[in-house]
């Protein structure tokens, strides 16, 4: 079984052709390991058992990452009655010195399993907690583009450094509608001119929030109203 995992991690054309591709793409080294584990577990019909294995305290224990002996890891995993796929997978991580990636691999496997179960995984980051009305509008936009048999799994997190706006991850797609990223572009635009600035401030409630900046003939819309519109368009084109 360990051989199957090793073959799955191989980049050869032969090995790739035998790999059961996950229903969603996961990236990086952890993504490769998670995809290999998914393929191995799929072939043995143990996807759900492996998923349960990866949630056990033993797997989540920080001391496991510091274990360097493959035999010790395998012995501990076997005593806990973990599936053969999980046991061999942990042994392979230890053998390759990748146990420090275990948490990320588990996260990638979780993402694969959510897609396998027909869930559309969405992460929404905002500079402050969204109001109920904004949350409702966002959920409506996501529900309109989700497939009939897909279940939405939306996780909201707060990241003050965004300043305002949203960063939305839909499956393996990334949509940055934050003010921080737009302000960066605005600064780059302003830096290209050595002219004196004459700033005029006005208020327009229909923007809902955020800013609209006009610099000469350049127009930069950082309003919540426009971001919500762009988010709907991005969601439609991304899913």
UniProtKB/TrEMBL annotation:
Tell me the protein's name: Oligomycin sensitivity conferral protein
Q: Which UniProt keywords apply?
A: ATP synthesis, Hydrogen ion transport, Ion transport, Membrane, Transport
Q: What one GO molecular function would you report for this record?
A: proton-transporting ATP synthase activity, rotational mechanism
Q: Where's it found, cell-wise?
A: Membrane
Q: Which domain of life is it from?
A: Eukaryota
Question: Into which family does the record put it?
Answer: Belongs to the ATPase delta chain family.
The top of its lineage is:
Eukaryota, Metazoa, Ecdysozoa, Nematoda, Chromadorea
| Gene Ontology CC entries for this record | membrane
**Where's it mainly located?**
membrane
